[in-house]
Recover the amino acids of this structure.
């Protein structure tokens, strides 16, 4: 039996609280800011006592931003829609391409397989800007700049390696004999992939998909360079709050709250599957 | 030709490029008749599991052909071969219960639910896993998983059943019981089975014929009795049998009247020429160097035998194992009674010519067994 003294427990609680405060405070502060006007936000010293207002959210949703210099149109809701569409579509494409590829890399060692897999991973090492400059040229020639198709394609640089490498690891953890047992019972390799490999790697695929979604969602530079206003996601759209008459902190805060919500909801929803995935790992083979 | 279930012809297996990779199986030739139980016996890495997996279709055949019921299948996917297999690592499907795992093997056969239930129940009874049918693989022991895996293979009505170390994880008592039951089950249904094992008791008990493999080469393929009594070479002779065969290098000299073997330390074994057939004598005289083999059960103590000295004397509860220093080596004797012999005590050792196995000193090939040519 492990015994802990009251002092030890107290110290633990204090340490834990410190960590939580450290990480949660910015989020908490942004949440508060999203209910304040620019004036109260910029008060010195700052105060957590204020009369909350929904004007920031109203501005975002209606798309009319009131500034000292007049009314500006902002496309935040459209940006949010773009973010969702781009991320979902990119992850979907990456899953369709990456999961079978991961299976192939996990199960079949062919000449150059390691090299190909590593090349795919190396896309993650290259600084995005380095890729972007020549890509901008190509995209213009190909007529792909400022298209959803082009953006989703470029987003594969983010999503595909991630999914490929994470899912490959999960496939490698499944005993090949489990699949052989299924195949010898009279099933094709494709049925085996679908009925045995996919379900057993399911939690891993979910985890990889979630990570890829978050990375795609948070991407800034690809969309900034390759897309114009009507195709831009929230990360780029937030730039609109830096106006000629000052930075609209209140709206930025509420925009952040709104744009974090989908990923947070997804992560919370997927959490139980991820945990389930970890415990399933214990029975494999 | 019709009663050949499996024909393996000139099969080579390389891991890596052909001719340059690891040569796991070398020019293997084997035939298995319908209804036969074959044991592939050998130590780890001898190529027995590679052979089994080539037959199942999980490993590509580098060279040669594999035929099932007269049909060449080496390029077929496993699904088209109609073979069943029990895996050494069990390989049960984690999300299914033991019952579902076993019944699963029958899914493709489109039997009615009641027939499936009946078959599962009977195989579960045979393997003593009735009480765990509702459990998941993660919650049962290795031995239970192994029996579930075995059940999943045996329940199928396949052309060939491949069993990879099917009983390695079982307790000795259970193993002994199941051996008999499984053999009966296979024979009763006329199934053909190949089992891979490194346990010679298992091979002897289950198999009609044993294929002894070493270094990727099939050393001998014969009945358990023949393998024991007439080992084809020194490897089979020393690998099969417990305790292992005693072997001593020797030179041969002979005349019209007698045959003499010269062992190390000046030990000479002389036999009247009449103890060996003419053919054996001729064969022996052609060699300078041979290896003499004799099984520990056949070594006798006698006062007028060759001198040895007791090094170890162990009573195992039903037999005595005596190791004696003899001719620069160790001679192991097995006696059925408890023997009071102190360590260091001199004994006389008699090697009956009818129990002698003689192998070529260079190739290891058997020359003679007793008075007959190999």
């Amino acid at each position: 039996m492990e015994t802990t003294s009251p002092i030890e427990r107290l110290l633990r609680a204090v340490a834990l609280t410190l960590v939580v405060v450290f990480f949660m405070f910015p989020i908490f502060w942004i949440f508060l800011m999203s209910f304040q006007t620019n004036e109260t936000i910029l008060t010195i010293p700052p105060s957590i006592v204020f009369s909350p207002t929904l004007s920031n959210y109203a501005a975002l949703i209606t798309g009319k931003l009131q500034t000292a210099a007049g009314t500006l149109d902002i496309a935040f809701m459209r940006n949010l829609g773009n973010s969702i569409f781009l991320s979902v579509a990119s992850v979907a494409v990456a899953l369709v391409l990456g999961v079978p590829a991961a299976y192939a890399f996990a199960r079949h060692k062919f000449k150059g397989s390691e090299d190909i897999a590593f090349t795919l991973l190396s896309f993650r090492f290259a600084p995005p800007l380095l890729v972007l400059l020549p890509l901008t040229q190509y995209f213009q020639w190909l007529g792909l700049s400022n298209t959803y198709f082009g953006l989703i394609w470029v987003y594969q640089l983010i999503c595909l390696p991630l999914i490929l490498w994470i899912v490959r690891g999960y496939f490698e953890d499944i005993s090949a004999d489990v699949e052989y047992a299924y195949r010898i019972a009279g099933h094709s390799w494709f049925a085996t992939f679908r009925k045995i490999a996919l379900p057993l790697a399911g939690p891993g695929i979910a985890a990889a998909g979630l990570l890829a979604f978050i990375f795609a969602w948070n991407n800034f530079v690809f969309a900034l360079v390759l897309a114009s206003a009507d195709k831009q996601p929230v990360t780029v759209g937030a730039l609109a709050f830096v106006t000629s008459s000052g930075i609209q902190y209140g709206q930025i805060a509420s925009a952040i709250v709104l744009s974090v919500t989908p990923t947070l909801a997804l992560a919370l929803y997927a959490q139980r599957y991820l945990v389930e995935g970890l415990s399933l790992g214990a029975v494999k083979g | 030709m019709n009663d050949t279930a499996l024909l393996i012809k000139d099969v080579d297996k390389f891991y890596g490029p052909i001719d340059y990779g690891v040569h796991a199986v070398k020019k293997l030739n084997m035939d298995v008749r319908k209804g036969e139980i074959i044991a592939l016996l050998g130590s780890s890495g001898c190529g027995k599991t590679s052979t089994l997996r080539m037959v199942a279709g999980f490993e590509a055949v580098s060279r040669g052909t594999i035929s099932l019921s007269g049909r060449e299948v080496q390029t077929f996917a496993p699904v088209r071969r109609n073979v069943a297999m029990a895996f050494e690592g069990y390989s049960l499907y984690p999300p299914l219960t033991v019952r579902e795992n076993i019944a699963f093997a029958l899914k493709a056969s489109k039997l009615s639910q009641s027939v499936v239930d009946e078959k599962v129940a009977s195989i579960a009874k045979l393997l003593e896993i009735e009480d765990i049918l509702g459990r998941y693989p993660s919650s049962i022991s290795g031995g239970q998983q192994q029996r579930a895996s075995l059940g999943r293979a045996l329940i199928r009505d396949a052309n060939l059943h491949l069993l990879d170390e099917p009983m390695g994880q079982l307790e000795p008592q259970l193993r002994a019981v199941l051996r008999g039951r499984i053999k009966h089950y296979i024979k009763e249904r006329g199934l053909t089975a190949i089992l891979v094992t490194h346990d010679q008791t298992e091979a002897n008990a289950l198999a009609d014929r044993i294929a002894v493999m070493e270094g990727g080469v099939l050393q001998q393929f014969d009945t358990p009795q023949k393998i024991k009594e007439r080992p084809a070479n020194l490897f089979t002779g020393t690998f099969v049998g417990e305790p292992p065969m005693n072997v001593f290098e020797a030179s041969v000299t002979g005349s019209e009247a007698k045959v003499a073997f010269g062992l190390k330390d000046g030990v000479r074994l002389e036999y009247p020429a009449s103890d060996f057939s003419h053919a054996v004598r001729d064969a022996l005289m052609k060699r300078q160097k041979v290896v003499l083999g004799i099984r520990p059960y056949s070594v006798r103590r006698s006062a007028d035998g060759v001198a040895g000295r007791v090094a170890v004397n162990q009573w195992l509860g039903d037999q005595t194992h005596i190791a004696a220093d003899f001719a620069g080596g160790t001679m192991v004797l097995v006696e059925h009674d408890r023997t009071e012999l102190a360590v260091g005590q001199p004994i006389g050792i008699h090697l009956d010519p009818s129990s002698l196995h003689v192998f070529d000193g260079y190739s290891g090939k058997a020359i003679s067994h007793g008075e007959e040519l190999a």
